[in-house]
Design brief:
18% strand; single chain; alpha+beta; disordered C terminus; 135 residues
């Protein structure tokens, strides 16, 4: 998939395009980039109604290619370095969204699959585990 970054596109539009390909992941935009292996502070989250031109740290436009074999860390670096847009990838876990800080070395497809498996319990885990001791 490709996402075109233009000055008038909103952050929300980018998020929607990303979610079409990776429904169990999301990206959030921040005022500043996070350090590798660290999370981003919620207070630094940008309003997704803002246009690129309002938040971008450089003047770049263009296209970013996103595919399942791309590592989370590579995607975050590409947004930051190429377009001046600090992002953090989140993975859905049940009803909450987790920052992927500890698993940035995994690909987008792997992250999406992990979240999908949490969302739809497998047939094996549908029965409750028996925690009673055996005699």
């Amino acid at each position: 998939m490709e996402i075109t970054i233009t000055k008038d596109k909103t952050l929300k539009e980018i998020q929607k395009e990303f979610a079409k390909r990776f429904p169990f992941l999301k990206i959030e935009f921040y005022k500043q980039a996070h350090q590798e292996g660290k999370g981003s502070l919620k207070k630094n989250t940008l309003n997704n109604k803002l246009a690129i031109k309002q938040v971008q740290k450089n003047d770049s436009t263009g296209t970013i290619k996103i595919h399942g074999l791309l590592k989370v860390s590579e995607l975050e670096k590409a947004f930051s370095k190429t377009f001046g847009l600090p992002v953090q990838v989140f993975r859905k876990s049940g009803k909450v969204w987790l920052q992927t800080t500890a698993t940035d070395n995994l690909t987008l497809a792997e992250q999406n699959q992990m979240a999908k498996e949490k969302e739809v319990p497998s047939a094996q885990s549908s029965e409750p585990m028996d925690y009673h001791e055996q005699e």
